[in-house]
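Long-time lurker. I teach an intro course on protein structure, and each term I like to show students one example going from raw sequence to a predicted 3D structure in token notation. This year I'd like something fresh instead of my usual example. Would anyone be willing to generate the tokens for the chain below so I can use it in lecture? Attribution to the forum is fine with me.
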Amino acid sequence: MLTAESRQRDFPPLEGLAYLNTAAESIPPMCVFDAMSDYCNDKALGMRGRDSHFAKVEECREVAARMIGLQTNEVSFCSCSSEAYNLLASALDLKADDEVVLTDIDFPAGVTPWLTARVKPRVSMWKIREGVLEILDLLPLLTGRTRLVQLSLISFYNGYRIPWRHVVDKIRRMAPQAIIAVDVTQALGRVVLDCSDADIIISSTHKWTLGLHGGCIVGIPERNAERLTTRMGGWYHLENAFGEDRFDRAVVKQGAASFSVGMPSFGPIYALNASLRYLEGVGVKAIEEHANPLVAKADAGLRSLGLSPLIKVDQTKNPTGIIAFKHPEVARFHAALEAANVHVMHHAGRIRVAIHGYNTAEDVERLLGVLGECVRSPE
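-- Reply from a regular --
Happy to contribute to a lecture. Here you go:
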């Protein structure tokens, strides 16, 4: 992943392509395709293949737990982050006088369950200033009635990374009853995590983790198992799904296990097990050491072209894989980048650049070269 040889071996689709869009979709390594072949071979065995399916779930649970800093029994899987957050809403069962704190740079999956609830809690919005969430703006939002603070460790929108320790210490002191939920979708597999003391950790699987759609990691420390147990129907998350009393009562497994309500998505779990073990073998720290200088190079290059990133402060001390900027002509910029086989995200008037361990200095130079031509040659 970090050398020309491993890139060519493990990511052949990247040949000739400057792929800078991992924050939306990753390019999986070849071991993921091998894992999917294994899944199909096991599936072809019919019922006899289920032993292998369930064994793979346990393998994946083990590596996922290591990656997010929890114990194996504190991790489970569902189908996507949207499902995870709706299951969390079920577990919390908030009332009209409960309070929730959200941010305006969070992904909709972590925000909308509290806005669409039949009984809506009171919602307060922690808003960015110049791309940054200022801690002084959070403090007035925290009260004794705060039941949930929803955060993204790294924002999908502009790449801002929460100063985790500082923020959590303030929440624990000023809103001691609050559940702290953190979405690490834009962090897991790209940066070394520092949020294992969150009350619940959620991550999609098709971005920096290099897996596929249809999976989501849910981590709930044992101390919160009873408090964060879903109230949903199903079977896989039940202790007595096929017991003689199954039509009289449903005994739900506690904590993370309660978030796997039905048959696991075995295919994505095979893929995730392979991709996480691949990343673990490379080392997330090594990925940071390779990719962070490329982010700094891209950031400096954009600023030199007058394309100011949406985060106005220097983030070099706490870098992430994402840089985003707005410009009146981003549609033209995006078309030029696509024509040059440079892939970035273009959405809502902004271009978002995402740099992972499989990216190179040449990728960044191609990006800046095309954007430089666009800036120098306006239509």
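Some talking points for your students: The domain at 31-281 is CATH 3.40.640.10 (Aspartate Aminotransferase; domain 2). The longest helix spans residues 284-304.
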